[in-house]
Amino acid sequence: MVWFAHGLKTSVNALINNASQLSNFPLGNPKNMIGMDPPECINAGAIYGHSSMINGLKARIEKETGSKYTVVLTGGNSDYVKDYIDKDIIVDQNLIFYGLNELYKNI
Question: Which phi and psi (to 5°) does residue 73 adopt?
Fold first, then answer.
């Protein structure tokens, strides 16, 4: 089964670009669930929210299909959420490049 979700940075950029009072901030591993200033709060919400989305979707898919699945995280920001995904996880930041290479070789 293959299922895709938007990336962490895509989500954060959409929030910042559509909320005029928010400014960009560096992503990082949150120190706490509840931040002490807007950048900490947005970062924690982004990291914990994104990992909760992945955990929740995996649980729903497994319940619906009756099968177990492995989450494959790709992209440069996958390191931020990997520690918050429940289990059965593979992190491959370069997976897209492997696929593009295969396409190139078959042209």
Answer: -95, 135
